[in-house]
Amino acid sequence: MDRQPGLSVRLKLTLSYAGFIMIAGVMLLAVVWVFLLRYVPEVMFGPASGPDRSDLMDAFAPKVAIMLVCLLVFGLVGGWILAGSMLAPLTRITNATRLVADGSLSHRIRLEGRKDEFRDLADDFDAMLTRLEAHDAEQQRFAANASHELRTPLAITQTLLEVARTDPNPNTAELIERLHFVNTRAIDLTEALLLLSRADQQSFTRAPVDLSLVVEEATETLLPLAEKGGITIETSGEVVVTTGSHPLLLQMVTNLVHNAIVHNSPDRGTVWVATEAHADTAVLRVENTGAIVSAQLVSTFTEPFQRGTQRVRTDHAGVGLGLAIVKSIVHAHGGTLTLAPRDGGGLSVTVQLPVAE
Ligand SMILES: Nc1ncnc2c1ncn2[C@@H]1O[C@H](COP(=O)(O)OP(=O)(O)OP(=O)(O)O)[C@@H](O)[C@H]1O
Ligand SMILES: [Mg+2]
Fold first, then answer.
1. Ligand 1 shell residues, CB under 6 Å
2. Among 18, 122, 1, which Cα is nearest to 73's?
3. Residue 9 CA, distance from chain mean position
4. How confident is the model at residue 357, as a pLDDT?
5. pLDDT value at position 196?
6. Between vectors from CA 72 to CA 68 and to CA 78, what angle results, nearest 5°?
7. Which fold has domain 121-200?
8. CATH of domain 206-354
9. What is the share, in percent, of the chain residues with pLDDT greater than 70?
10. Closest-lying ligand to the alpha carbon of 308?
11. What would the pLDDT profile of 329-339 be if each residue is shown by its tens digit?
12. In whole angstroms, what is the distance from residue 305 CA to residue 303 CA?
């Protein structure tokens, strides 16, 4: 914003400080003067003798003037120093704000001393900077990972084409098959990224959605995949209605059940999907058998492009966006996502969403 130049707060404080001292001084001197007029003449200057009131005025006035000048100087100098020391923290906060505006998020004010209004402001500002810096780092990591993941299928395509070009009698059918596979993967990845940004922006229409129906829909689609891997899906639960986007909630359940299938034990695994209606929360629980995972590893699963270390099913070429998308969808619907290792191996995922009114 363009502003007209004005007086600094320090100058304004100094002037008001000196002004108040002057008013107090003048009032005090007025009291003294009234006192002199009323009582002193009778005692000091007898009715018929000695100096009269004009002499008194002549004697008093210069002293008053000197006194007022002293008070003014005292008020101005004292006020200037006092205002300066009071406003010093503000200068540091302002400098920090300018640094941030120039793009340096690593700077912290770290105002020392006991708690007061300025320290509160500085601490809140530091906390905000910490959050901003973490968010910024996360965004950068995300962009780097996304470009890396997007480059991989392109690089594979390039290699396949180069090999085919130098090959005297290339196997076109196989080449097409491979290119198709790589291309599908690139499309899936791009779609996942688009979905993630759509959920993050919360640009979707909301309507009442029955979670148990969504579960039914998702498990039906994924049943062939589960059967192929020898995995049984057990669904249970009650009708529970939340408000949100049906396609996004379907994507959320699909991602969770898909994970529960592909990250399950190699054979005879089980997936449990349940919905529960609580007082004001709709709960979706997806659990699966599988390898034992540590709580520490589980806490990293929702990070974009994070994949678990042990691959149970090597034929599943995931990009590591499934749970990041689930997390964004859950947050966009005002819910919470909890991941925990399941007793006896595998994972237990709980989604809590607000129920529709
Ligand atoms: N139900 C589960 N049981 C065990 N591990 C799981 C489960 N769900 C996720 N994981 C672990 O968390 C990691 C991240 O999951 P996420 O869904 O985000 O990515 P992904 O499944 O590897 O790839 P995709 O983007 O295709 O979903 C997985 O690689 C896996 O190691
Ligand atoms: Mg997944």
1. 259-260, 263, 288, 290, 293, 301, 306-308, 318-324, 346-347
2. 18
3. 33
4. 82
5. 83
6. 140
7. Helix Hairpins (1.10.287)
8. 3.30.565.10
9. 94
10. 1
11. 999 999 999 99
12. 6
